[in-house]
Amino acid sequence: MRFRHRDGSLIHLAYCTNVHPAEDLADIVAQFDRYAVPVRERLGVPVLGLGLWLARDAARELAARPERTAWLAAQLRRRGLEVVTLNAFPYAGFHQPRVKKAVYRPDWTDRRRLDYTLDCARVLAGLLPDDVSYGSVSTLPLGWRDPWPAGRQAAALALLDELAEELATLHRELGRTVRVGLEPEPGCVVETTGQAALAWNGLDHRWLGVCLDTCHLAVQFEEPRAALGRLAGAGLPVVKAQLSRALRVDRPDLDTVREALGRYAEPRFLHQTRTRGPDGTVRGTDDLAEALDGALGREEAWRVHFHIPLHADPAPPLHATASTLTGALDALVGGERARVRHLEVETYTWTVLPAGEQPAGPDGLAAGIAAELAWAADALVAAGLEDLNDRGPRGARHHSGPTAARRQERRT
What we know:
Elements: E1 2-4, E2 10-16, H1 25-43, E3 48-52, H2 56-64, H3 66-78, E4 81-87, H4 111-127, E5 134-139, H5 150-174, E6 177-182, H6 193-199, E7 208-213, H7 214-219, H8 224-233, E8 238-243, E9 245-249, H9 255-262, E10 273-276, E11 282-285, H10 288-295, E12 302-308, E13 319-320, H11 322-333, E14 342-345, H12 361-382, E15 386-387, H13 402-411
Parallel strand pairs: 2-3, 2-14, 3-4, 4-5, 5-6, 6-7, 7-8, 8-14
Antiparallel strand pairs: 1-2, 1-15, 9-12, 9-13, 10-11, 10-12
């Protein structure tokens, strides 16, 4: 979906397809018909943006055979779909029964990560619509924090330097600009924007920057405008932003709250949990189950890395971090100049929501994703952007859009 910022910038909104278990080209195209086209039809828009996830083998095949990339681009066009951003954080096997810390492997000390990311960049250059010259790819923030001795840091930065050189070559050869954004995440080598400003200050910012995830900001108790100020001070561009909300737990000391929260402690993905003490120090555990087992104090509120749908609050007594999301949107696109051009709704936790909250089959998932995108589109219009999507009757404004979110923000 496309929007025009007051400064003239074209802003793209997409949903991330890593919610779908597709590891090869046949499954990728099948997901277009099973999910993406129904989402587009529910929204009533002529073109829907996808933040495409390509697993390692699919990316390798497409990069090695440009004619297959051209074929995939044609499959997208004929369905009214477009791709300007790829999610290259998960490498492969993202829908195994247990993922947890495996999603951070291989990390940026491993040349396989460089090769995979370059394959994704080359494929993206071939998938970009004819009227778009800029694409973005998101990746992990170097790796998981433990173990991470000094030698690993140097090795990772050396591979990122190679990445920047190859992206420059890609631009010279094809005339397409592809930038890569490293995504700070709780528990990783780089968890916060402050750490990013220090760790990545020496990177070539023409090609490398930050992917800003609003759920991760909230979990680390980062205020959006201050976070963006830190990045700007270091010269780090926001290559793309992922829109999501984290779980907010106001009273982790109450048994009723802990019982409700336990429904989110599931076995597939990691759900880092953080609390902030009276002195402002942020402490946490690597997974929600550990926090519930007593590894995290109950005196202060918790934030949990569980991506909550934009439009639907969790059942009481739990909440979502609405104020961080709306604050980030205001800071990114609400000013006189846009600070990001690619926005991606993060969707992968739809399939691990608690029983009773998961979507019912493909139609239910398509309806949920469409509702998230409708919320995001309404929020962008409320921020002053021009809606270029000609949303028809089926794309009517969602009843719990940005106005409801701002009511929630005042409560947080």
